[in-house]
Amino acid sequence: MLAAADLTFTRPERHLAYRFSFTAVPGEITAVSGSSGSGKSTLLDLVAGFLVPHSGALDLDGRDLLPLPPEARPVSILFQSDSLFEHLSAAANLALGLPAATPRADRDTRIAAALAEVGLPQVAAQRAGTLSGGEQQRVALARTLLRNRPVLLLDEPFSALDDVTRRDVRDLVYRLTRARNWITLLVSHHQDDIAALATRRYVLADGELGLVE
């Protein structure tokens, strides 16, 4: 279980103070909704380690995450866009999710398996910039498979997609969360995404999270 207790952060320049407490469990998607500027991305940045809280606790299955730098945290992040290097092939982008010392044969096998799992076995050699928005998000999801980290953070990951592609990628996220037993934390202001995916839901207002029963 991922748990935050009174995780505080202040943005003096905006006169904003946040206090976050929540729990998220494996195999489920926990959603956080709120208006633009309410602090949803700040919450993800604290979990990922890009921001340092002023006080509070953050742990995964009892392990304190706060002393860990971003690269050492058991976390993957999927953003709305700009997740891939467009001049590199899909396979080269996925290789960035593997240790540099991975043998080439093993690397190629794992990349092919990850692309197959997200339904794109044919795009390995294509430059990421030539892929559609939905295909790029699937490749980004394949990279999270290779990173094999238990916590997945989603920052408005479907907003740039058309309605049909959005549903397809959304369903893929749901299936992978269940199959991989990920702890998935989604922030979104799209109520249809939250209704389709969330097992547990929080609303962020006035700097604090409220659990929706």
Secondary structure elements and pairings:
Elements: E1 2-11, E2 16-24, E3 28-33, H1 40-48, E4 55-60, E5 63-64, E6 75-78, H2 90-95, H3 104-117, H4 133-147, E7 151-155, H5 163-180, E8 183-187, H6 191-197, E9 200-205, E10 208-212
Parallel strand pairs: 3-8, 3-9, 6-7, 7-8
Antiparallel strand pairs: 1-2, 1-4, 4-5, 9-10
β-sheet strand percentage: 25-35%
Rg over alpha carbons: 17 Å
CATH architecture of the largest domain: 3-Layer(aba) Sandwich
The CATH topology label of the largest domain is Rossmann fold
Residue share in helix: 25-40%
SS content category: alpha/beta
Name the overall outline.
globular
Q: Note the gap between the termini.
A: 19 Å
Q: What kind of sheet is the major sheet?
A: 6 strands, mixed
Q: How many strand units? A: 10
Count of the separate structural domains = 2
> Helical segment tally?
6
Order of the strands making up the biggest sheet: 6-7-8-3-9-10
What is the chains' assembly state? single chain
Q: Averaged pLDDT, please? A: 90
What key attributes describe this structure?
4-stranded antiparallel beta sheet, 213 residues, Rossmann fold, alpha/beta, 6-stranded mixed beta sheet, 2 domains
Protein described:
By secondary structure, the protein is an alpha/beta fold. The protein has two domains: 135 residues, P-loop containing nucleotide triphosphate hydrolases (Rossmann fold, 3-Layer(aba) Sandwich); 68 residues, no CATH class. The strands form two sheets. Strands 6-7-8-3-9-10 form a six-stranded mixed sheet, with helices on both faces. A four-stranded antiparallel sheet has the order 2-1-4-5, covered by helices on one side. A hairpin with a 4-residue loop joins strand 1 and strand 2. The chain is globular, with a radius of gyration of 17 Å. The two termini are 19 Å apart. The mean pLDDT is 90.
